[in-house]
Design goal:
Two copies of one chain form a homodimer. By secondary structure, chain A is of the alpha/beta class. Chain A has twelve helices and twelve strands. Chain A has a six-stranded parallel sheet with strand order 2-1-3-4-5-11, sandwiched between helices. Chain A has a six-stranded mixed sheet with strand order 7-6-8-9-10-12, with helices on both faces. In chain A, helix 9 links the parallel strand 6 and strand 7. The first copy, chain A, binds a DNA duplex (16 and 16 nucleotides) through helix 2 and helix 4.
DNA sequence: TTGTACGCGTTATCAA
DNA sequence: TTGATAACGCGTACAA
């Protein structure tokens, strides 16, 4: 079952290669219905499929989109992929992926490989915050940043809102009559953590609520647990109506375990909310009011922007698009 | 900054295309050190990169591996990808991914697209259990099944051990002196669930331990929680030393919440263990003894088998390879 | 309405 | 030790 070529099909159908090619590309402007039919049947009969490599060489199109993901080992990134993949498929592009493993050299290598492959566009979850790192590639082929924006904002990007949704949740907490918000977060070393913290804090201030940052240590260390436990019990013994906000899934899980451990009732004694990066918060008892990032929408939208950028017909909008997060109002606050 | 071609490099270096090509492919058998150096410098200076499409057309190699993953929206699948991706990269292959979304037509479409792209090999997490579905493709290009074996065992596959590791954990439970094992599982409709259940049950029988299947309903329904809660409290009131085994992450999480809810001490009043598909069980208090599947190893090993299958030099072993799971012995049992 | 002939950028064979 | 040159499979002016 060796590979058919256009020439064989042509001679089998009794026409020339050109006619077959025209047929394949839908250029049957002035092709007799008769030949069309004959070609269709021959192709079917011989089970012929055009050779993409040759087509690519000729047309200088690869049909490939490259996606560099920072770390595939978490649900968030894989949902980015999933969203992007679906849109790529709808538009008949193939998605090629590489992992940068949060390493700059690995990222650079991946970019080079993509350029070599002559992908038609690149989606990247950038490691660096420095826009200039991506210049050489970004000028050579369309590129959209995913999940993170770099400075200055040279490149189009699709990101998740961290400040906005946090604020929205904060407003909700205020409305519920809490008098203090305790923000549990790992050390504020990343932009994401800072934004989540800032959003919560800002709204608290606006409504003159007290807010407190509880910085949690390395979650894998055992003494982190006891430290947190101590802080939590101090907190709830205060004479305030307290709402806890955990700024990621792991921290949230930890907080819940501690509250159970201390036999503290949610939401009677303390309100609980947080970011649910893994989509499990609905399983808790009571179900946790949480912010859920729509990673697959981010991936999908980024791919749409990229495709618009590739398509010479469509006007490409080079902007930073923010995808709203979902706020799941449940029983815990 | 338009694309250089080999011809331009050749004339710039004052040699012929052939010599450049030889240089590029490392065939400097009888090339003067002088020309080698001159070519090296010219390539560098012009920043020349060979056109992969042309190379592919000529050599009939695409350098592409296709991976069809059933559903990218879960951690397990994304780790499969991650493992496969790393190995592909080491061997200078590009990974193209498509999602079958657990749909047979979608899977078939993806397979077709891969064949059209002339990928050199296919990794697939098959939807169907029927081997014959994959015949037409599997005969045309190397293929390795990932995560699932089909019947009859026509294709090489890399799967995770569900029976073995469960048995191993069961032995451990026996050794710890428990007198009864309660197996919490969703309805035994999949092979995976059946194997996990069977492994546990078999060992229990061997040691004449009592074992009981507690079938849990849809985890998203609220009454599932109360039903489970009832079953759990009945269980612990029995006059036995009971170990609970939850056959997946969600069930395990549910069991933990219930035990907390009922103020039942782990492991004093009841032992707890289970499958930890999301790698969070270490966060619980006490940390949970659990089975952790090494999905990224599965992906990596599958890719290795596939590459061996592609490489005409290496002998390809068409077998079903089972990757052992990790058993994390912690405090909960 | 269809066919001829050339070129896309490589690799590889043969000759020098 | 290197250079001409013919493919690889397809698309497309241009000619018919």
């Amino acid at each position: 079952m060796k590979k058919m070529t256009i020439a064989e099909v042509a001679s089998a159908a009794g026409v020339s290669k050109a006619t077959i090619s025209r047929f394949l590309n839908g250029n049957y402007g002035k092709m007799s219905a008769d030949t069309q039919e004959r070609i269709r049947q021959t192709i079917q009969r011989l089970n012929y499929r055009p050779n993409k490599q040759a087509q690519m060489l000729k047309t200088n199109r690869s049909g490939l989109i490259g996606f560099i993901v920072a770390d595939m080992g978490n649900l968030y990134s894989s949902k980015l992929l999933s969203g992007a993949s679906a849109v790529a498929r709808e538009n008949d592009y193939q998605l090629v992926i590489m992992e940068s493993n949060n390493s700059l050299v690995s990222e650079e290598d991946a970019l080079k490989k993509f350029v070599d492959q002559s992908v038609e566009g690149i989606l990247i979850q950038p490691i660096s915050e420095d826009s200039s790192r991506y210049e050489s590639v970004g000028k050579r082929c369309p590129m959209v940043l995913v999940d993170r924006q770099t400075t200055p904002k040279t490149w189009p990007a699709v990101i998740v809102d961290n400040a906005l949704s946090t604020k929205y949740l904060a407003e909700y907490i205020v409305k519920k009559g809490y008098s203090k918000i305790a923000i549990f977060s790992e050390s504020l070393t990343t932009d994401v953590r800072r934004k989540r913290y800032a959003g919560m804090r800002e709204v608290a201030k606006e409504h003159s609520l007290e807010s407190e940052l509880v910085e949690v240590g390395n979650l894998q260390l055992t003494n982190t647990y006891s430290d947190m436990k101590k802080r939590v019990s101090e907190l709830v013994s205060e004479d305030e109506k307290i709402a806890i906000f955990a700024s990621n899934s792991q921290t949230l899980l930890m907080v819940l375990r501690i509250l159970d451990d201390l036999r503290i009732k949610i939401p009677d004694e303390v309100g609980v909310s947080g970011y649910d990066d893994w989509n499990w918060a609905f399983l808790a008892q009571p179900a946790i009011t949480s912010i859920e990032q729509n990673a697959s929408d981010v991936g999908a939208e980024a791919m749409r922007m990229l495709l618009a950028d590739i398509d010479p017909l469509r006007e490409s909008v080079k902007e930073t698009k923010v995808i709203p997060s979902k706020i799941n109002i449940r029983e815990s606050i």
